[in-house]
Amino acid sequence: MKIKIDAIDTLFFKDGKPFTMGEEVWANSMFPPPPSVIYGALRSHYFGLHPEVISKAGTSDDPTKDLVLNFFGIAVDGEVMFPTPLNLLFRKDAESDENNLIKTELVEFNGVSNYAYKYQLQSEQNEKVDSVSGSYLNGNSLTEYLFRTDKGLNALPLSQFISDEPKTGIGRSNSTRSAEDGKLFRTGMKRPSVKKESGE
Question: Domain coordinates of the chain in residue numbers?
Answer without folding.
Answer: 34-71
